[in-house]
Amino acid sequence: MFAVTPRLFLRPGWPEDAGNLFAMINDEMIVRNLANAPWPYSLKDAENFLSLPTDPVGPRWLIFSRTIARPQLLGCIGIGRLENRDIELGYWIARPHWGQGYATEAGQAVLETAKALGHEHLIASHFLDNPASGAVLRKLGFKPTGQTIPRYSLGRNREAKTLEYSRALSEPNECEVMRKIAA
Hints:
By secondary structure, this protein is an alpha+beta fold. About 30% of the residues lie in helices and about 30% in strands.
């Protein structure tokens, strides 16, 4: 499954992406904001991540810039089913690309894909010390549930509090509203 946006190309990760993935995620400031990535992060961790089975209703993509030159890996995004059956959005962007709107742009493509796959509702969360992720989620139409819960982070090697969000895919988000206004 692939997705294209004005600036991005989203595609599944392939084994040959391991070195590039390792180079982009091997940053403690990124990994500490993820629940399932260990720190320190190794090339073997990247290889293991890329070898995970694909889930047709819970896809994950590497995020690449669309350029005339060779596309550059910017991060990763995906949705997946949790043990309680909720579908969760997760993502990360490499530090040199923070603050450029890539997470929001990729997130919009994933929301559209999730809706096409028949999902009606998504959840997401961010660690309390990562408010930038909350800003992305709000732009994508996620609303805080008011719940703050502890979640274990492999990168932190401990539990940390997360702020929980929810999103009905039938409701428009800020990106969709702005696109309709511009049209």
